[in-house]
Amino acid sequence: MSAAFWDRVAERYAARPVGDEAAYEAALARVRHWLGPEMRVLELGCGTGMTAEKLAGSVLSLEGTDFSPEMIRIAEARRTAGNLRFSCAPAETALAGGPYDAVLAFNLLHLLDDLPGCLSRVHGALADGGLLISKTPCLGAKWYLWPVIRLLQGLGKLPRFRFLRPGALEAAILASGFEIVETGDYPRKLPGRLIVARKTR
């Protein structure tokens, strides 16, 4: 995964409206259900910080991290929450600041070159009983989209990513020492799979 792609598209990404506002707000409501005012939270791959801003009021502190300097520049420029801070860091560096009560990963897990390795590092950075809360596009069953996506990737319009299926993603999370306590699709048609998983060992 290359930071150069995300640096190049950062301004356009920040200006793009949410595709399905109802699904986005429904997912945020489920995430807030699992957060609490005493929690120290880390978001990996925070992008331009819009979701972090919306969730910061539900927790004690939230640190949004991304490996794209341009994404973090935009996030910092529009930051308003006093308990929110942003930093430019790869996941390995960000997770070293634990233990955290929750780690958030929205629209990230399908982009990772080493998904099992990242999940293992998240597990190690969580306090006992801590939560991994993720939402991931799962296009593994949408085979008819693959040629178009591959073409757009070849033109530099989309990043490289895994065509995950929800079951395979959940299996990887379970294998990393978590129990899954909630799932849902926001939106349903992609699906954008929301997974809330608790560290168990």
Task: Explain how this protein is built.
The protein has 201 residues and is of the alpha/beta class. Helix content is 38%, strand content 25%. It contains eight helices and seven strands; from the N terminus they run ααβαβαβαβαβααββ. It has helices at 3-15, 21-34, 50-55, 69-77, 91-95, 115-125, 146-154, 166-175; strands at residues 40-44, 61-66, 84-88, 100-106, 126-137, 178-185, 192-199. It has a seven-stranded mixed β-sheet with strand order 3-2-1-4-5-7-6, with helices on both faces. Helix 4 (69-77) links the parallel strand 2 (61-66) and strand 3. Helix 1 packs parallel to helix 4 (69-77). The radius of gyration is 16 Å and the shape is globular. The two termini are 29 Å apart. The mean pLDDT is 91.
Features:
about 200 residues, alpha/beta, 7-stranded mixed β-sheet, 8 helices, about 25% strand, globular
- The secondary-structure class comes to alpha/beta
State the total count of DSSP E strands.
7
Please describe the biggest sheet, giving its number of strands, its sense, and whether it closes into a barrel. Answer: 7 strands, mixed
Number of helices: 8
Give unreliable regions as ranges: none
Computed CA radius of gyration, to the nearest angstrom: 16 Å
Percent helix, as a range, is 25-40%
Measure the end-to-end span: 29 Å
How much beta, percentage-wise? 25-35%
In spatial order, strands of the major sheet run: 3-2-1-4-5-7-6
**Global outline:** globular
Give helix and strand order, one letter per element, not per position.
HHEHEHEHEHEHHEE
Mean of all residue-level pLDDT scores: 91
